[in-house]
Amino acid sequence: MDVVPVIRRTAAPVALVAAATLVLVGCSSSAGGDDGGSEPLTVWFPGTSEPEIDLVTNTLVPQFEEEHDVEVDVTFVDWADLAPKLNSAFAAGTAPDVFGHGPAAAADLVANERVLDLTDYVSTLSEEDRDDLAASLIGGQVDGTQYLIPLSVSGQLVAYRADMLEDAGIDPSSLRTWDDVRAAADELTEKEGDTITRAGLLLGTAAIQRSISFNALISAAGGQLMDGTEVAFDSPEGVAALEFFTELYAGDSAVGNNLGNDYLNSAAAQQPLVTGDAAMTLLTSQAAMQIAAAEPDLEIGVLPALSFMQPAAFGGAGAGLFINADTEATELSWDFIEFMSSPEISTAYAEGTGNIPIRASAAESEYVQSSRVLQAFLAEMPNFVPNPNVPSWTQIRDVLDAQLEQALAGVATPDAALKAAADQAAGIIGG
Description:
Blueprint: E1 4-5, E2 41-46, H1 50-68, E3 72-77, H2 79-92, E4 98-101, H3 106-111, H4 119-123, H5 127-137, E5 141-142, E6 145-146, E7 149-150, E8 153-161, H6 162-167, H7 178-188, E9 190-192, E10 195-198, H8 209-220, E11 226-227, E12 230-231, H9 236-247, H10 272-275, E13 280-284, H11 285-294, E14 300-302, E15 306-307, E16 311-317, E17 320-323, H12 330-340, H13 343-353, H14 366-369, H15 372-379, E18 384-385, H16 393-408, H17 414-430
């Protein structure tokens, strides 16, 4: 794949949010029947992005209501409040017919029998539709069974300042492995004494971001975080990946600085690529598009998924829609999800929220064709590796993330950190 520059695009990005574990109790029954009764279909969307709210409530839902001659009651719930509000609604029997959440919540929702198996519904789609959605659908599966239909795709790739690489005589097309990128970062890093004034390469090292960066590295090394419900990150591949990660920030040969800084969620004007404080950084498609919109004269390039043993990058299904297992409006709920995942609507939703579309065919849409950064991310979807969809993953992720912090800070060796995380994770799984 060609290395491509980001071109001008205005979009309203939606942050990649880590879903909280749900502790679901009680029973629920939802309003709205398949007989087209008077009760509206109730739908909760996660997040409070104004562009998304405007698009969904003023354009997409009215279109669905007109096409199906129904009323839809839509509520947007802040991510921080989503889990407790869902818990309360399930306990009170007032949970919505359809609700959005992140893939990280899927396994616990399934374990608590809160969501419908959508496999039979997906099978009613045409083979062309299933193929078109294949790369995103896998992120909504638990043990191979479909429970969530994604609304968008998220991913992270290394972006770079084209002018800085050109000044250093580095050809971006030669950067295909993490070792290639590390060698380039050595040349691009600038220091005053022992202080890095321009980082050659930055990866996400803030809370939770550490585990996401590590997922990309261990996957590229041929390893994985989990093998089914068993911990797999304390492996030779995991140790090698974490050694690479820690060495970016440690010692005289460090190429990264500001350990723990949340640059990924910074405004475009404060992004290290924009300020000149870094030559290469791991970025989400949303952040890259923000930069393109805010700094149209700044040429930013995007590298393909990098490898040690195989190309891999963190990514996959973003937030999506589940159907409440107790809804009385099963067919109508599926109609709504099918509508949201249809070619025209899913692309309109992605464009309105600044996300990667869920369908491969969206590569031919004006939205993607007018944005080289989206083309780059969409092309790498087959190499995206999501977080594991297993029960208690968010708790396992948190203990892993804490130990990754210890390793990055030099408090623990990579091997010791991963063993400690594995021991704690085993307690969570066994508990």
